[in-house]
Amino acid sequence: MAARPELMDYDKALEMFEPVVGFEVHVELSTKTKMFSDAPNEFGGEPNTNITPVDLGLPGSLPVVNGQAVKYAISLGLALGCSIAPTSRFARKNYFYPDLAKNYQISQSDEPIAFEGSVEVEMPDGTLFTVPVERAHMEEDAGKLTHVGGSTGRIQGAEYSLVDYNRAGVPLVEIVTHPIIGAEHLAPELGAAYVETIRDIVRGLGISEAKMERGNLRCDANISLRPRGQEKLGTRTETKNVNSFRAVERAIRYEIQRQAAILAAGGSITQETRHWHEDTGRTSAGRPKSDADDYRYFPEPDLLPVEPSLELIDELRAALPESPAVMRTRLKAEWGFTDLEFQDVKNAGLLGEIVETVSAGSSPQAARKWWTGEIARLANAAGPEVEASSLVTPQQVAELITLIDSGELTDRLARQVLEGVIAGEGSPSEVVEKRGLKVVSDDGALIAAIDDALAAQPDVLAKIRDGKVQAAGAVIGAVMKAMKGQADAARVRELVLERAQA
Amino acid sequence: MSDDLIRLSAADLASKLASGEVSSVEATKAHLDRIASVDKDVHAFLHVSEAALQTAAEIDAKRKAGEKLGPLAGVPIAIKDVLCTSDMPSTSGSKILEGWVPPYDATVVAKLRAADLVPLGKTNMDEFAMGSSTEFSAYGPTHNPWNLDRIPGGSGGGSAAAVAAFEAPLALGSDTGGSIRQPGAVTGTVGVKPTYGSVSRYGAIALASSLDQVGPVSRTVLDSALLHDVIKGHDKRDSTSLRDEWPSFADAATAGLAPGSLQGVKIGIVKELNGDGFQQGVKARFADAVALLTSAGAEIVEVSAPSFEYAISAYYLILPAEASSNLAKFDSVRFGLRVNPEGGGTVEQVMSATREQGFGPEVKRRIILGTYALSAGYYDAYYGSAQKVRTLVQRDFARMFDEVDILLSPSAPTTAFPIGEKIDDPLAMYLNDLTTIPANLAGIPGMSIPMGLADEDGLPTGIQLMAPAREDARLYTYGAALEQLFEQSWGHTLISKAPSLSASEQSAATEGVV
Amino acid sequence: MPDPRRGPNRLGAMSEITREQVEHLAGLARIALTPDEIEKLTGELGHIVDSIAKVQEVAGQDVPATSHPIPLSNVFRDDVVGETLTQEQALAGAPEHDGSRFKVSAILGEEQ
Ligand SMILES: [Mg+2]
Ligand SMILES: [Zn+2]
Questions:
Q1: Is there a contact between A188 and A250 (Cβ–Cβ < 8 Å)?
Q2: Which helix (H) or strand (E) holds A185?
Q3: B86 CB near a chain A CB, below 8 Å?
Q4: Could you check whether the bond before residue B155 is cis, i.e. omega within 30 degrees of 0?
C-alpha cells in the first residue's frame, strides 16, 4: 500500500500557486438509436442484446450517421455559444481495447462540429464566471467491461473480464474547454458549477437524461498548477470519470493540494490520468501519457462530411430554450424570491418544478413553500434515492395550493391531502372527497360547537370576558378537536370571541 | 448435355431456364459436377454450398408455379469469400476467420438471393484481398485454368478461375486496386469494377474502404452487365452508396452489338499505361486491338496522365493505412481465431499472439506499413501526400475525359506468371496493379475483357476500358462492341481455347505452356 | 485533438526504417512478430517506403486532399430502431463467453 501522499494546506497552496483547470465532459445523447447503427440506445437490459453487426464491429459491417444525433450536437454547440463548422468530419482514433469493438473509436478529431464558445457559470456567491469552450464533437461510446476475480472488482488483479456491447455506439458529444484561468481559490467550486451548468443546458435542450450517477454525463478534470508569476502552464493531470458535482469539487481540491505539495518539495508532476476514489476522497495514478499513445487519426473513409445548411442551423438556433443563466436571472426577478430562497430552490434542483407549478396557476411563494418544505421532507423520509419531483406532479401541487387559497383546505388538511395524493388515491380534489377532509365553513355548525365548549369551560369564558383574550386558546383547541381539525382556526377564533361577548 | 450446360454463357443459360428447356437443378448439378471433377486441381473454391441444389429446386418450383422471375433466375453463381454469407463460412482467405459464419448476408448476396440466383460456394482469394496472385490465401493458391502452374491473378483469382474453368458461369469479385480486372486479364475472362458507390459494400469484409468495390466476373460482357444489373443500386447501410438511378447495363451491352456502334467514338490511349515493363505479347495484342478499333471507325487519340507515375505509390500508402485500421477488429474477442500464448497471458498478449498466428506475411507487411504511414510525425508526409496524389489522379482523368469518351490500356502488364515467382518480392508483386490502380483512386469504373493470347507464352491478355464516374453503361456498350470485334477477327471466343481440364488434357496443361 | 507531436514533414530523412521502429509499429498494431520477422520486415519496409516516398514530390500545399473518390456529404439515417442481433447470434462466433457476455483474459492496460 502506498503511503498517504502529502497534501499541502489549501490556502497555502493557493498562496504559492495559481490553479488552472480544464474539463472534458461527455454527454450521452438520448436519441432512440445509436450514433452509427439502428440498435436501440437503451441503458441496461440483457447484455449484448441492443446490438447490430455494426456495434459488434463484425467484418463487413458499416456505420451510418444518426441524423438526430447531429441535430442534437448542433443544438448543444449553439447553446454553448459555439460556431458550427460548415464542414465537420469523422475520424478514426485507433487503439486496441476490448470494450472498443472495432479497435478504433469513430470521433471527430481535427474538424469538430462546434468550436469556440463559452458558458456562463454561476458561482456559489451568485457571480458569473465565463468558461471558454474549445470544441464540442460527436463520437461513440464504448462497451462495458466487468472485471472478475481479485478482490476489488477493479481492473488490477482481475482474473478475466466480461464485455457487454449494449453501450457500444451510444452517441456522445464531448465538450472540451480551454484551460480555465482565474477561478483561483474557487476553482473546485467552479468545476462543480460548470458541470452542473452543462447538465442544466442539456436537460433544457431535452437531448440527454444527463444523470451523472448513470454515466449519462461524465467529467474528466484537468488540473495543473503554476508558480505565481509564471507564464507557462504547469504539467497537468487528467482525473477521469468524476461522477458527481461534489466529486468534481473534491477531486480538484485534492489535486491542487497534492500537486502543490510535490512542487513545493522540488518535485515534478507526471502527465498522467488519475482515478478518483469517492470512498477515500483521493486520486491515484493511472496511465502515464507516453509515446505509445499514437492514435493514428485519419478521416473515417466509411463516412462523409457533415455540412449543415445555414437554414438548419438557424432553425435549431430559433428553437433553443433560454440558457440556464438567463433563465435564472429572469425567474429570480419575476418570482421576487430573496437570494437565500432562490439559492435554496436551485440547490434542491426544484427550479423546473416551481416553474411548472407557477404556470399551472400557483403563486411562486406558495409553490416554493410546498416544494422545498413538505414535499422535500416526504421525499427525504422516503429514502436517499427519492427525488421530490418523483412524488407528485407540479399540476397536483398547483391544485392543492388553489384549494388552500380558496379556503377549502387548511395547511394541516393539505398535508393529509398530499399524503393521499402520494399514496395514489387520486388528484387533490379526489382525495379531499374520499377522505372527507373539507374545511367546515358552515358558521352554524361552528357556533354550535363553540357554544358547547364555552358552556363546558365556564372559567375560561369568564377570563375572556375579563379581557384575557389569550385564554381563548383552550376553547379553540376543543372546537378544532370536535370538528376533527376540519375548521379554519382563524375563523374559529373570531367566532369564539364573538360568542363570548354574546 | 451437362458439359454443354457449363459452357453456356449466363445469358444463354438463363434463356434455356426461362423457356423450361433446362431446369435450375440440372444447371446447378452440372456445375457442381464440374467443380467435383476439376477443383482439386484448380482450387477455385474454399467452400461449396450444400444448399445449392435445394435452392435450385425451389427456384424451379417458383417457375413452375408461374411466378415472375428475374432474368438470371436459376443461374448458378460463385461468390468471393470476401463477402458475408449467412449460410456459408466467410473467411476472406484468412486463418483468423476460419469457419466463421456471419449472422447476416452482404447486401449484394441478399440481392443475388432476391433475384433467384443459385450460390454455388465461396471462392479463393488472397488473404483479405491483399495480393495479385491468390498465392497469399491462407488456404493454398488457386491455379490458372490455362496453365495450372501459373497464377490466376489476384486477389480474386478464385472467382476468375471458377468462371474460366467453367465451374460457374458467373461470380462476384471485389476490386480494390484491380482484384477483378487483373485476374480477368490473366484468365481470359471479363471483370468489371463499377463506379465507387454504385454497388453496396455492406457485408464485404473491408480491405481499404475508400477503394473497395464489389463487381461482376463472367465470360462475356453481357453476362457481367446482367449481373451488374442485379447488384447495383443504393443501400442505406452503406454511407458511401450513391443514390443514382442506373440505366439497364444489359441494354447498354446489347446496344454495343449494333452495327456502327464504334463509329466516331473517341478513344484515349493512356501513354503512361503502356510503356516499358509491359510484356511484348501484351503490347502486340494491344496494338492489334487499337488497329481493330480504328478499322471500326473509332477515333484513337493518345492522352497523357502525368500523375499516374505516382498513383501506385499513393495506392500503397492509402490501402495499407486504411487496411491497418479495418483489420484491427480481428482481435480474438467477438469472432474468429484466438491464440492463447503459452502459460496464459493478458488480453494484450492474447490479441498479439492471435494476430501473429492468424495473419499471413503479406497482411502483416501491409498492416505494419499502414501503421507507419499513419503514425505521429509521418502522417502528412505519407498518408496526407497520398491523398493529394489522389486529387491529381482525378484531375488527370477529368482532363482526359474532356477529350475522349473512353480510355483504353492493357489490363495487366504481363500474362500469368508462374506460381512462386514473385512471392518473395513484394515490390515486383505490387507492379501487377499498375494499370488498374488509377481507376480505384479516382472511383471511376473499369472493365477488363479478353484481348487475345500472347505469342510468347500462349496465355491470355486483357484490355481495360475506363469511363468517367457514373458512366458504367459506356463500358458495357463499347466493351460489348469490342468483344464482338475481337471474336469476329479470331473466329471464336478466347475462352473456347482454354484447356478443357478433362483428365487427358490436364496432364498436358500441367507440363507447361500449351 | 490534433496531435501536437505530429511534426513537420521530414522529407528524405525518414525512409530509413529501423528494427526498433518495426518493433514499435508491431506493438501499436498488436502483432507479436518474431525476431526473424522483424528483421525481414525492417528490410522490406525500408525498400517499400523508399519507393513510395515519391508521393511527396507532387503533394504541393495548393493540392487538396481527397479522402472519398466520389464527393458526398450529409448522409444521415433516420433515428428509427431496426432489427438487432439476438444474444445467441452475437455470441455465436465468440472464442469464449459466459452465456451473455464475451470473455477475455485479464487486461493489463488502462482505459483510454
Ligand atoms: Mg478525453
Ligand atoms: Zn471522448
A1: yes
A2: none
A3: no
A4: yes
Q: Which residues, including other chains, have CB under 8 Å from residue B398's CB and lie 6 or more apart?
A: none
Query: Closest-CA residue in chain C for B316?
Result: C52
Look up the CATH number of the domain holding residue B274.
3.90.1300.10
Chain A residue at shortest CA distance from B236: A64
A104: distance to nearest CA of chain C, Å?
11
Closest ligand by atom to A172 CA: 2
Ligand nearest to the CA of A219: 1
Q: Separation of A139 CA from ligand 2 center, angstroms?
A: 7
| Inside any domain, residue B491 | yes
Q: Is residue B328 included in any domain, yes or no?
A: no
For residue A242, the CA-to-ligand 2 centroid distance in Å is: 14
| CB of B203 closer than 8 Å to CB of C78 | no
**Inter-chain residue contact B335 with A96, CB threshold 8 Å:** no
Cβ pair C70:B332 closer than 8 A: no
Cα B124 to Cα B109: distance, rounded to the nearest angstrom: 17
A161, A273, A301 ranked by CB distance to C107: nearest:
A161
CA B477 and chain centroid, separation: 20
Which residue has 433544457 as its cell numbers? A204
Buried residues in B450-483 as b, exposed as e (16+ CB within 10 A): bbbbbeebebbbbbbbbbbbbbbbbbbbbbbbbb
Which among B104, B333, B374 is the nearest to A98, CB-wise? B333
Phi, psi of A246 (to 5 degrees): -60, -40
**Tally of domains in chain B:** 1
ipTM rounded to 2 decimals: 0.94
Burial B281-308 (b: 16+ CB within 10 A, else e): bbbbbbebbbebbeebebeeeebebebb
Q: Which chains touch B (3 or more CB pairs under 8 A)?
A: A, C
Which residue out of C3, C10, C55, C70 would a mutagenesis test of the B interface target, given it has the greatest number of B Cβ atoms within 10 Å? C55
- Residues in chain C closer than 8 A to B423 (CB atoms): none
Nearest Cα of chain A lies from the Cα of B374 at a distance, in angstroms, of 5
The residue in chain B having the minimum alpha-carbon distance to the alpha carbon of residue A95 is B328
C-alpha distance from B282 to closest chain C C-alpha (Å): 25
What does the pLDDT profile of chain B (514 residues) look like in tens digits? 556 899 999 999 999 999 999 999 999 999 999 999 999 999 999 999 999 999 999 999 999 999 999 999 999 999 999 999 999 999 999 999 999 999 999 999 999 999 999 999 999 999 999 999 999 999 999 999 999 999 999 999 999 999 999 999 999 999 999 999 999 999 999 999 999 999 999 999 999 999 999 999 999 999 999 999 999 999 999 999 999 999 999 999 999 999 999 999 999 999 999 888 899 999 999 999 999 999 999 999 999 999 999 999 999 999 999 999 999 999 999 999 999 998 888 999 999 999 999 999 999 999 999 999 999 889 989 999 999 999 999 999 999 999 999 999 999 999 999 999 999 888 888 888 999 999 999 999 999 999 999 999 999 999 999 999 999 999 999 999 999 999 999 999 999 999 999 754 444 444 444 3
Q: Which domain range does residue B31 map to?
A: 2-307+391-513
DSSP class of residue B21? S
In a domain, B301, yes or no: yes
Q: Do A32 and C107 touch (CB under 8 A)?
A: no
Q: Which ligand is nearest to the CA of A238?
A: 1
Domains of chain A: 10-291 (no CATH), 325-435 (no CATH), 443-500 (1.10.10)
C-alpha cell at A155: 481492473
